[in-house]
């Protein structure tokens, strides 16, 4: 058990070193990375396509790298914006790592790229623990996912610099409680901004681009309280062992920073749980 925890900490420490070097290298090139995290089906690709198209209309030098376990479907969709796009197939790996990202950027990222949007694998557990050298980490959730999503995945939402709600055009139809969602976000990440969007109608499109450009220009980004807390061993006491993935990295059984939730084990959801 201890060896598994030590391995996890070593993997994360190595990734953090790679991320710091990648961040510094890209800064020298004038490129800012925006890391997008969400569950599958959140509407992340649709919103990113709209943001890239808007950036191209404004003649802004942007690019996107999208990661999936299989298919190039998302890259084909994003390429319709006219921005340079690269697809990364992880062959089953549930997240990107800084070394992997750097390898895919080498020889591909166009010179002069101001913003690089990284669409991470659809997963709110493993990707939350891996710094990709980003300046802005954005977590997205659709109105269909439930107001208590931030409490179920406190690491992902707790380390976000910006939270984006998608598919708000159907919020009424699914009974989305915006006030409850905002309250739950604030429980795990006090002070973080929440932006409402609907890619299909265009509502809120451009907000993500504007926040990314501000960060690239040196504007201060939100400082999550959780980011200043030490990362525990990604381990639950009732687990016999934290077994590695088949791809060689230890896997978090549940949310890795769940132990940092407030008293009584977990934050209590505003508005009650959603099925």
Summarize the structure in words.
The protein has 275 residues and is an alpha/beta fold. The protein has a single domain, classed as P-loop containing nucleotide triphosphate hydrolases (Rossmann fold, 3-Layer(aba) Sandwich), CATH 3.40.50. 33% of the residues lie in helices and 15% in strands. The protein has nine helices and seven strands. The chain has helices at 2-28, 44-57, 73-79, 98-105, 149-152, 154-158, 171-174, 178-188, 207-216, and strands at residues 32-38, 62-68, 85-89, 115-119, 136-142, 162-166, 193-196. Strands 3-2-4-1-5-6-7 form a seven-stranded parallel beta sheet, with helices on both faces. Helix 2 (44-57) packs parallel to helix 3 (73-79). It is globular, with a radius of gyration of 18 Å. The chain starts with a helix and ends in a 59-residue tail after the last helix. The model is unreliable at 232-266 (pLDDT under 50).
Task: Give a nutshell description of this structure.
This protein has helices spanning 2-28, 44-57, 73-79, 98-105, 149-152, 154-158, 171-174, 178-188, 207-216, and strands spanning 32-38, 62-68, 85-89, 115-119, 136-142, 162-166, 193-196. The chain is of the alpha/beta class and 275 residues long.
């Amino acid at each position: 058990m201890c060896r598994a925890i030590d391995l996890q900490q070593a993997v994360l420490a190595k990734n953090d070193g790679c991320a710091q070097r990648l961040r510094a290298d890209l800064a020298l090139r004038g490129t800012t990375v925006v890391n997008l995290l969400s569950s599958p089906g959140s509407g992340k690709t649709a919103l990113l396509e709209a943001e890239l198209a808007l950036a191209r209309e404004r003649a802004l030098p942007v690019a996107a790298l999208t990661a999936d376990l299989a298919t190039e479907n998302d890259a084909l969709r994003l390429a319709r914006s006219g921005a340079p796009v690269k697809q990364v197939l992880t062959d089953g790996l549930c997240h990107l790592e800084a070394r992997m990202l750097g390898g895919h950027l080498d020889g591909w990222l166009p010179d002069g790229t101001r913003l690089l949007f990284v669409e991470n694998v659809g997963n709110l557990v493993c990707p939350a623990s891996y710094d990709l050298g980003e300046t802005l980490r954005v977590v997205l959730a659709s109105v269909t996912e439930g107001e208590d999503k931030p409490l179920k995945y406190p690491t992902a939402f707790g380390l976000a610099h910006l939270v984006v709600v998608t598919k708000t055009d159907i919020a009424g139809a699914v009974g989305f409680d915006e006030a409850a969602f905002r309250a739950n976000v604030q429980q795990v990440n006090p002070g973080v901004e929440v932006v409402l969007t609907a890619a299909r109608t265009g509502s809120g499109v451009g907000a993500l681009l504007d926040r990314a450009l501000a960060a690239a220009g040196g504007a201060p980004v939100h400082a999550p309280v959780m980011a200043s807390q030490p990362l525990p061993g990604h381990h639950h006491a009732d687990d016999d062992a934290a077994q590695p993935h088949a791809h060689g990295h230890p896997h978090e059984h549940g949310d890795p920073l769940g132990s940092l939730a407030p008293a009584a084990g977990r934050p209590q959801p505003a508005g009650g749980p959603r099925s």
